[in-house]
Amino acid sequence: YPYEISGGQKQRVSITRALITDPEILLADEPTGALDSRSSEDVLNLFTRINSSGQTILMVTHSMKAASYASRVLFIKDGRLFHQIYKGDRSNSELYEDISRTLTLMSRKGEPA
After folding, report:
1. pTM of the model
2. Is 109 a residue whose pLDDT tops 90?
3. Torsion (CA) 16, 61, 26, 7 in degrees, nearest 10
């Protein structure tokens, strides 16, 4: 029963239920929020695989690690698009660094480079 499983288990079940219908676009709001680091990594790797096969995923997250798995990262500040980064052929760790620099710039109320 749902009340017998953990928050992380509920989150993984929700992701599975969303994927089973093969939607045109998968909306993922903080998909790794209630997961431990191993389960988060599994979900992000799964998202990478299904995205590379043509599945569109729109993920909203505050996690720099989760965002570093994306092919495109949009930064929203005060309800407006502040900046965007395309991953291209960079690694997750390189994109993570770019995300970190952009968030630092946003916190200083600067304009994107």
Report:
1. 0.84
2. no
3. 20
